Amino acid sequence: MTTIRLVQGDITRETADAIVNAANSSLLGGGGVDGAIHRRGGPAILDACRDLRASHYGKGLPTGQAVATTAGNLDARWVIHTVGPVWSASEDRSALLASCYRESLRVADELGARTVAFPAISTGVYRWPMDDAARIATETVRDTPTSVEEVRFVLFDDRAYEAFAQQT
Ligand code: ADP
Description:
By secondary structure, the chain is α/β, with parallel strands linked by helices. Helices cover 38% and strands 20% of the residues. Strands 1-6-5-2-4-3 form a six-stranded mixed sheet, sandwiched between helices.
């Protein structure tokens, strides 16, 4: 059984085995939660991302996939980087958003992570409507078989917290 917990706050302040990053496909950092993770986690994360680019992801990490690095100075063992889809009004990209959660949990299982903290992937710069993103996130975690014991959604503001609370 996986327990789902909601907390409001800054994911870079969390203690967990793995912290999920809403990365972009370059893996070279960006704004939002990505920028915050690299700032607080320090240069070891970016170094590991550069190595991954060189070895496996020269064309970038595809949307919906996930990959792990060190967590640097964060209070975690790993950062799992996943690339959310950009919201589209004309195309249903829900399967890709669900894939971010499923693939992150798959990587967490491979690593042996028991506690995993997720941000609300795609709901910032990528503009996914919060209520819909919260539904996809919680449904996907509930429907994914995993050895992860605790999934913690770390919601940055009241609006995100309320949207996730509606789903649980
Ligand atoms: P994306 O490009 O996937 O939309 P963003 O980082 O722009 O990624 O936003 C994803 C979500 O993360 C947004 O809801 C944003 O408010 C939230 N967020 C930004 N900074 C943090 C943080 N430090 N901790 C947790 N969530 C954050």
